[in-house]
Design goal:
This protein is mostly helical and 401 residues long. It has a domain of 115 residues. Helix 1 runs antiparallel to helix 14. The longest helix has 31 residues. The radius of gyration is 23 Å and the shape is globular. It starts with 25 loop residues before the first helix and ends in a 24-residue tail after the last helix.
């Protein structure tokens, strides 16, 4: 998830095409990865499933996954863009440090413990640092796209503060808007040529409408949540219409893989929007689970899978080449979510619902193993065609054989 091209960090190779060593920034991926693993453990407990750490507080699941894992990953890229070749801006790495450490402490201690409170306070500071990173980037290049990205950080900051007084269920639109605006901003940047000059103004308008709906949801949860669903669907339809995947789906290799992942993410965003409109995502019903996981798994995690060969090289300093095996975790993620959503709507939160959630966890773990394995194996060897010498012409002057 990158910022504007003028602010992007360098690619994974140096001069002469030589491979770089793994960057020290991988430590932040470790922090985020630990938040991810602990958040998934809490998610398994929420399902009523077996989990490696059965004593964990399962109520931390959503916040650890969103602010702890996704917040760390996204803020790391922004911090890297700001601090690249400018050591004075190294303070920007406080954002992923505080968000990652806060997520880990919250996951270990639970919401009602001293360490859980410390974790919440660290995430507030991390979200504040994240917002300041955007403001500093804006000072460097005051572009409309960066204005939209600032809008994405504000809901995260507000959510980390309000969670000290409100139940997480009331903050789902805030956390959802953080992810939706962030990812839509990235797509508007990466597909500028195909989306046209109106892409950023359109995105800014839709983001403002989403923020208005989110703000209203804190006062009038039912109607505002339905309005949130309407804007969510409009954003998804706009991305399907103007983004690149509809054209890239007929290509090969990484572009085709990314196109499948992007279209799947947009599909789940529409499904979640429909459920928001129809039910307002009422807490205590299966619809609440659906609106959450269509955004946070169906949309956000498919986007991570789509962009991993681009995101991780910029962070770790080494290539993460695309391989066809990446389709396996991508397919499992979508199958698991489809099973989970279908089971909830048809038979309720029974064994099929639990199985769908377990498949989602397996898909994410398999994806992590695939990325790590791809890094270890390295770039696939290119097949070289053997050149054959032309046969000599015949003495009689006929054609060569």
């Amino acid at each position: 998830m990158t910022v504007t091209s003028s602010l992007q960090a360098p690619g994974p190779t140096g001069s002469g095409g030589k491979r770089r060593r793994i960057s020290w920034r991988v430590i932040f991926l470790v922090l985020g990865g630990l938040s991810l693993l602990m958040g998934m453990n809490a998610g398994l407990l929420n399902l009523g499933s077996w989990a490696p750490a059965e004593a964990q507080d399962d109520s931390v699941h959503g916040f650890v996954m969103t602010a702890g894992f996704l917040g760390t990953l996204i803020s790391l890229e922004r911090a890297q863009a700001l601090a690249h070749n400018e050591p004075k801006n190294s303070w920007a790495f406080l954002a992923p440090t505080l968000l990652g450490a806060g997520g880990i402490l919250l996951a270990i201690g639970g919401t009602a413990s001293f360490w859980g409170l410390v974790g919440h306070l660290l995430m507030i500071q991390g979200a504040l640092a994240f917002t300041l990173v955007y403001l500093w980037l804006w000072r460097r290049a005051p572009l409309p796209l960066l204005a939209t990205q600032i809008l994405s950080a504000v809901p995260l900051l507000v959510a980390t503060i309000l969670v000290l007084r409100f139940d997480v269920s009331a903050l789902i639109p805030l956390l959802g808007s953080f992810l939706i605006i962030t990812i839509a901003s990235e797509r508007a940047e990466l597909a500028q040529l195909s989306m046209g000059p109106r892409a950023v103004p359109t995105l800014l308008t839709l983001s403002l409408l989403l923020i208005l709906a989110v703000t209203a949801s804190l006062i009038w949860p039912d109607p505002a949540s339905r309005a949130f669903g309407v804007v969510q669907i409009v954003i998804a339809l706009w991305l399907i219409k103007d983004d690149a995947p509809r054209r890239l789906i007929k290509s090969k290799g990484l572009p085709r893989y990314s196109a499948y992942a992007l279209l799947a993410g947009y599909f789940w965003l529409i499904v979640g929007g429909i459920v928001w409109i129809a039910t307002a995502g009422a807490v205590g019903t299966p619809y609440y689970d659906i609106v959450i996981h269509t955004i946070f798994i169906g949309f956000a995690f498919t986007m991570i899978m789509a962009h991993a060969p681009v995101i991780f090289p910029a962070v770790m300093g080494i290539p993460v080449p695309y391989r066809r095996i990446m389709y396996i975790p991508l397919t499992l993620l979508n199958v698991g979510l489809a099973l989970r959503v279908g089971a909830e709507l048809i038979v309720g939160q029974g064994s099929l619902w639990v199985l769908g959630g377990q498949i989602n966890v397996i898909a994410v773990l398999l994806f992590l193993i695939t990325v790590i394995g791809t890094v270890i194996v390295g770039e696939p060897k290119k097949k070289t065609k053997r050149r054959t010498k032309p046969a000599p012409a015949t003495v009689s002057g006929g054609e060569g054989v």
